[in-house]
Amino acid sequence: MNEAIRPGVDGQAQEGPELSVIVPTFNERDNVTVLYRRLEATLANVAWEVVFVDDNSPDGTWDVVRALAQKDSRVRCIRRIGRRGLSGACIEGILASSAPYAAVIDADLQHDETQLPKMLLLLASDKADLVVGSRYIEGYKSEGFNKQRAGASALATEFARKMLRVEIADPMSGFFMVRRDRFEQLAPKLSVHGFKILLDLVATAHGDLRAVEIPYTFGARQHGESKLDSMVALDFLGLVLAKLTNDIVSLRFILFAMVGGIGLVVHLTTLFIALQLIKVPFAEAQAAGAIVAMTSNFIMNNFLTYRDQRLKGFAILRGLIMFYIVCSVGLLANVGVAFSVYDQEPIWWLAGLAGALMGVVWNYAMSGLFVWRKK
Q1: Do 146 and 57 touch, CB atoms closer than 8 A?
Q2: In this prediction, what percent of the chain has a pLDDT beyond 70?
Q3: What's the rounded Cα separation, in Å, for the pair 106 and 258?
Q4: Single pTM value for the model
């Protein structure tokens, strides 16, 4: 066991880890023991702990971590039930840690844990508040980043840097170390949704974090599969928009509104097909468009906006029915507000915009209360 003995208050000895390693996991049972062994070897001269934050993995990752914890008190496990998302897992893990420095590293063995002592030295010597394992500085090597994913990541990185005026070269990195006291200052403003916790952290700090970037070798995944899916692009765009509004509008609301915009396209497409190709009367075509759009909105919100509270099994049917009801009432609110605004100021686009805004706010608020209720 590696226990640190550090000077405490009034010169008395104080025990505790110097570094907390936070590892968000989902279906990584084949990797966690290997990562633990690597940390044990790399941090032989450091007082450390590792906090695995598991989103109730179906493969029982949490059970493997629990077995490790029974043998080594430096291993801890936070098992989250009813909550999903890498950003939220990282936030919970760091806030639950006990060391003055916290590192975030993936469980897929692609990040280079041998860089952790170097990162710790930079923070402990007060040369930085944040150290980032960067893919865009000299010395970086990749063994497991395919060209398609690398290109998409580079494009997203450049977009984020320009839109949010972020100074570091790789704000999309998932491998970094931060002073816990500085993280705690920013934590209340961070989003618990999505995947890009570092981008959120740096954008929220508005240049007030002293950052150093170091190169590392990005390894090939040993087991399992990537957690990134087709919805991550919308998730990322939502985070950027939320930060552009200085978090006045939440990431979840922006994602809900974006899904609503897609739903409008679905509605108009269905309306066109029903009117022009199937030749049904307008009333029936409009009803079909509304039902198809609401259904698609429900599915996308369930998989993206509320992915951490995703409905499954019979709950999907109940949720869909409640979503129909909520959106139907929201349509009445939309029309009511639009007419009210138009009566006072007969500008059609202003009235329409006011009605649409009222509709999306109503649908968002009521969906959170009745469709995707927190358990």
Answers
A1: no
A2: 88
A3: 29
A4: 0.72
